[in-house]
Amino acid sequence: MYKEIIEKLKQKKLTIATMESCTGGAIVNEITNIEGASEVLLYSAVTYSNEYKIKMGVNRNTIEKYSVYSIETAREMAKNIKKFSHADIGIGITGKLKRKDKNNSFGQDNQVFINILYHNKSYDYTFTVTKKTRTSNKKALINFIGEQLITLLEKCE
Question: The whole model's pTM is what?
Answer without folding.
Answer: 0.92
